[in-house]
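Chapter summary example.
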Amino acid sequence: MKRTFQPKKRYRRRVHGFLRRMSSRGGARVVQNRRRKGRQRLTS
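The structure predicted for these 44 residues follows.
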């Protein structure tokens, strides 16, 4: 049985990347909250 996680860099960037986050108000809020918390990595 194969593993469920088959990583693809392009898909990861497109779905969870910074540009995608900032393109919507909710996503920008996610980045804002993560900045406030002091996260090392804001997006993928």
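To summarize the output: The mean pLDDT is 96.
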